[in-house]
Amino acid sequence: MISFSNVKKSFGNYLVLEDFSLEVQKGEIFGLLALPDSGKTTVSKLVMGLLSPDSGDIRIDDMEAGTGVRRLKRRLGYVPQLIGTYPKMQVFEYLQFFAACYHMEETKIRSRIHLLLENAGIIAWANSPMEILPRAVLQKLGLCFMNRRFWFWTIRCLLLMHEPYRK
Description:
Elements: E1 2-11, E2 14-24, E3 30-33, H1 40-48, E4 55-60, E5 63-64, H2 69-73, E6 76-79, H3 91-101, H4 106-120, H5 135-143, E7 150-153, E8 157-160
Parallel strand pairs: 6-7
Antiparallel strand pairs: 1-2, 1-4, 3-8, 4-5
């Protein structure tokens, strides 16, 4: 479960959230749709612990957002609107590079990348250089890095899911 209770967040004199409350139950898929600059990204950053609320309470299951960071990060995934890339790398090489950074077992990397690209629906882009990818493909590529219990996308909306992405 994810819950916000009377959360307030401001940046200087700019009030972004005031008395914001929300509860997303296990198994529920929730989308937060709103106008630009209305706080969607702030909500996701608060859940991820990237920002702290000025007041109020944010909980993910039995944990307070922003505490127990390692344990919390195992449950959360965040895909920003744009991911940083190495423009000349091909998509497959890019994923291999990050798999190595996470000390993934060499024998599993190729099959895992293939499966992730297939599940994200971007297998046709595997040998394409990163610099030519459309934004939508870059966003789907961001999903390939995660296997988390909760997912957060900031593609002009916020989607909370209680289970990992599966095709």
